[in-house]
Design brief:
93 residues; mainly alpha; 0% strand; Hypoxia_induced_domain
């Protein structure tokens, strides 16, 4: 084998990415993991209803809603972790 000169090193072109706005990113993330925004909406709804109940003097209902808020936050957190696991599994393939 004859050793010739090495091939010229040419830099490979950098990929061009489109600037992603807030709305585009929000829609993409919602499509990837739709349970997280749903859990956030449930948490906000239960919190709001609990605060309204507290203001109206319905202490029992207010306490119930604060406990439901904790459950909704737990659901949101579990959905977030589940989405992270699914994303990590997809990136390994």
């Amino acid at each position: 084998m004859a050793a010739g000169p090495p091939p010229p090193l040419e830099p490979s072109p950098m990929p061009v990415f489109r600037e992603e706005g807030f709305g585009d990113k929000f829609l993409r993330k919602t499509r990837e993991n739709p349970l997280v925004p749903l859990g956030c909406l449930c948490t906000v709804g239960v919190l709001t209803y609990g605060l309204i109940s507290f203001k109206r003097g319905n202490i029992r209902r207010s306490q119930l809603m604060m406990r439901a808020r904790i459950l909704a936050q737990g659901f949101t957190f579990a959905a977030l972790l589940g989405g992270m696991v699914v994303t990590a599994m997809k990136s390994r393939k």
